[in-house]
Amino acid sequence: MCSAFAKAQSITTKKADSIMMRSIYDFNLTESKSYEWLEYLSNTIGGRLSGSIQAQRAVEYTEKELAKFTNRTELQSVIVPKWTRGTPEFAYIQLNDLSTINVNVCALGGSIPTREAGIKAKVIEVNSIEELAQLGKSKIEGKIVFYNRPMDPKKIQTFEAYGGCVDQRYSGAEEAGKYGAVAVIVRSMNLRLDDYPHTGSMSYGDLPIENYIPAAAISTNDAEKLHTYLLLDKNLEFYLKQDCTNWGDVESYNVIGEIKGSKFPNEVIIVGGHLDSWDLGDGSHDDGAGVVQSMEVLHTLKALNYQPLRTIRVVLFMNEENGLKGAREYAKQAMLKKENHIFALESDAGGFTPRGFSFDTSDEQMEVVESWMQLFKPYLIHYFEQGGSGADVGPLKEIGTVLAGLRPDSQRYFDFHHAANDTFDAVNKRELELGAATMTSLIYLFDQYGVVNTTKD
Length: 457
Description:
Layout: H1 3-8, H2 11-31, H3 34-45, H4 53-66, E1 72-84, E2 90-94, E3 100-103, E4 105-107, E5 119-126, H5 130-135, H6 137-140, E6 144-147, H7 158-163, H8 167-177, E7 183-187, E8 215-218, H9 220-232, E9 237-241, E10 245-259, E11 264-274, H10 284-303, E12 310-317, H11 325-336, E13 340-346, E14 354-360, H12 363-370, H13 373-376, E15 383-386, E16 402-408, H14 413-416, H15 429-449
Parallel strand pairs: 5-6, 6-7, 7-8, 11-12, 11-13, 13-16, 14-15
Antiparallel strand pairs: 1-10, 2-3, 2-9, 4-8, 5-9, 10-12, 14-16
Helix pairs in contact: 2-15, 3-10, 10-15
């Protein structure tokens, strides 16, 4: 049995840990600043797409706040893509009698615009990318491809449902462009039927630039409507107009703040979320919540006069939404500096009620983590599963870091994800604070006990 595991089983230390965790939860439910920070990020700054003025304002604001309770802050330069949506998109279904039905659409992030007059063409509906090859160029060329595969409602883990259909959003234009399509319309990644189109990243892959085509998401209600009208009339036409622009790369920053460790300062624990968001709402759930929860971890430890044994660092990553450039740059610099990152925790699943964590780690380390489960039981935290962490901490796996992701209840997350209703009023203050307390507790435990094969006694 490893020394960390044995130490974790000590009755004396478990009692001390229980008392500390009670203090952490009490503080977050009474004196946390997370909701206040989120209100500023959401309502004063707004949506923070990479390369935007709002993203830069968020960088400046969060660094200023972190400087109030950390030993050191840093702005780490990151080169990110800049894309803007332009004027609001417009689309309609045109029936054979020339009547039109307006529908709710939004350009996918990274898409090219339509021509100034827009695009009008017949529509071919598919449920998968694989169907394109079956149809062939003769049936696709000159048409708008409508991807209409919904998220699977039978999946209890909604991120599994998302993963089961997001390929049509990300690669749909690339694949349809190979067959001569003039545009793609993608059913929004949303389990609920509503009128909000959900944006998100897309890619043209290795497609020649002359074959790039506009890509847009359509709301789930309007996807159902388009599907129904196509059953009645396969010759109907669809009109789309959008004037988004790709501006090339610009400089932005990861925001870093840390409290130096007192005993093992060269062992680094990080906690973070991504500072950028999509532009339709204000990014309160995705990922303003993760940003302020991560900041609150260090704020809480400082307020409770806890001196960490290891260096605890908050990293607010830039460009998770449309490139992951911040995560890759952070991992690259960590490797170049030969920093010993022992544990990394990410919050990027919304500010809903926390349920627990997923871990990307060894069986031996997971045994240690599971020994802590009773400590979380009073707070209704019960989900401790192996497999998965977070996109921004993922690149640190290459240097052997133990990875984890906060797992809130996910049933409502995709109602808001990448849509105009991802706003401050959609976040519950208490749920947000419980998530921050849960994260702080896990960071505290990793600080106390280190990781298997890394702890120095």
